[in-house]
Every structure is written in structure tokens, then in C-alpha cells.
Sequence to fold (197 residues):
Amino acid sequence: MEKDVKKQQNNPGKLFVISGSSGVGKGTLLKELLNRNPDLKLSISATTRHPRPGEIDGVNYFFISKDEFEKSVQNGEFLEWTEFNGNCYGTKEYYVKKTLGKGENLILEIETRGALQIKKKIPEAVLIFVLPPSIEELEHRLRGRNTEDETTIQGRLHEAYREIECSSQYDFRVVNDDLNRALVELEKIINQELAKS
Ligand code: 5GP
Fold:
């Protein structure tokens, strides 16, 4: 297995954008990827969504009010932002620019609308979409979480179908049928792209 995702000295860092419907296991996949590759950094987004049990402000997200979010939008602070299932999510531009400027490789874990905004602004960003093995499996995983009501689950499923359609515009698609296999494939893509820089 490849473990040498290295910081590119004297070069700007590389930007990877990873998307995938909620319930696809993208969180676990990313956690493993970051554990094994400490030179990769994960960006922390701002959101108006309420924290789920166990989520920490400044670690999982910056949980902010709708007013604060709107102010940041008006001040042009977001590189990208979107509304997703009733909440707003956004990536602060200064953080991305600062991190890449230091030569660090950054991962954004964001949904498809935001990812496509990034690709327009930063064409060299690498877009990777994590697919579920099947729609049935995705629904099963989403319900298994037991943290959300039926309306929220239906909303997430609806977004999932839309996002899977959008994934044809991504540079790479990885099926999360098996965590270790998907992890190896993801690392291979990242290492290949870093070797090009
Ligand atoms: P969740 O509420 O499950 O944490 O996230 C819902 C969706 O929002 C996920 O697909 C996640 O990738 C996406 N997301 C998280 N942060 C951002 C962001 O900064 N921008 C965009 N466009 N999507 C985000």
C-alpha cells in the first residue's frame, strides 16, 4: 500500500475535492485516508446546520448562525457555498489560499454544487466522487444512522440521486464497496496526481 502522500516543497499545494452522498461511508474513508497520510489536510467548512451528537465546533465544522453566514457571503469570503437540504455550507477562500500557498495539500469534503464551483475557479483541483455500491445499500446505511427523521432522510436520498448524476463531471469516481479496497484506490489517485505537480 502507498503511504507516501508528501508535502510538495516550494510548490503550491494540490487541492482535492471529495464528494459523495451522505451515508456512502465517505466520512470513514476520509478519516482513514487522513490517519495514514498526515501530510494531507482537511478543510473545515462553515455551516448553519445544528451539530449532531458528538460533533465539535471548530473540529467538524464552524457552526454559525444564518446571519453570520449571510454576512460572509456578502463580504465575498467564500470560495464556494451552497444550500443543501435546508442548511448553508461554505468554504472560506482565505483558508484554502493560505494552505495551498504554504505548499500543503488540502482536501475539501463538499457536495457537488460546491465542487463544480471550485472546478471553475481552480481548474487544476482534482474532483473525486465516492459512489455507494448500490442505491439500496445507500438507503440502508442512511436509515441505519438513526440520527434523523423521515423527512430529513427523504431529503438526503433526493440529494443523493441528484449528486450521483452530477458525478459524471468529476475527474474520478471510486465505489465504496469495501473500505480497504476503496482506500487503496483513493490513495493511488492522490499519489498519481501529486506526482504530476
Ligand atoms: P452533513 O450535514 O452531512 O455534514 O453535510 C451535508 C453535505 O454538505 C455533505 O455532502 C457535505 O460534503 C457537504 N458540505 C460540507 N461542507 C461543505 C462546504 O463547505 N461546501 C459545500 N458546498 N458542501 C459542503
